[in-house]
């Protein structure tokens, strides 16, 4: 059997999940803005705006998932989080 997690361990996990979520949202918003921003700055045809919106959404989703994975796997790999 493994040891039970302390309240400090549970709090650290909660904080790390919150940090991963907020930083992933921020990174995804930046990625979407970088792709879709020119559609707002210039007068582009509606088909181009739609294409940029879809491309920005796909990129934002990918960035979000990669950021969440990167942060949480990095937290799990720390020696003090080995569960012993």
TrEMBL record:
Keywords: Membrane, Transmembrane, Transmembrane helix
Transmembrane parts of this sequence: 12-32, 52-76
Superkingdom of source: Bacteria
A Pfam family per the record: DUF6332
Keyword Membrane part of the UniProt annotation: yes
UniProt keyword Transmembrane, yes or no: yes
This protein's name: Uncharacterized protein
Organism: Streptomyces nojiriensis
